[in-house]
Amino acid sequence: xxxxxxxxxxxxxxxxxxxxxxxxxxxxxxxxxxxxxxxxxxxxxxxxxxxxxxxxxxxxxxxxxxxxxxxxxxxxxxxxxxxxxxxxxxxxxxxxxxxxxxxxxxxxxxxxxxxxxxxxxxxxxxxxxxxxxxxxxxxxxxxxxxxxxxxxxxxxxxxxxxxx
Length: 164
Fold this sequence. Notes:
about 160 residues; Alpha-Beta Plaits; alpha+beta; 5 strands
């Protein structure tokens, strides 16, 4: 029996200028994201797909068995549904060479950020994942997190600024 699919908002809610927190889980929640060549390959494909899909990756964190993304649309035509489909498909295709098996579990989790939500608070949550999991003591130490917009040091400093 297949697990019940998560309900999504109407399609139009995922198109246009918006920000999203998205989580992809590795198939069977395997700890596959511990090897730098695989993580770099997957992140390269996702960042490339984001750019071509009119999304900016504000923050990402590749935990051992899942990936967090904070993305922001850069065009009115940007579609989160299309970006996710293409990002998962492209990264899985390239990763299969190294893994010999499918990369992602079916589906994903997303949260549409409200207009009054501070992007930094969500980025902070994402970047603090490895600290909360006990993988590192400081977010700057984790090698599989960052941003397409900022250097690792810049994104960590940016999220540590007081939120007004």
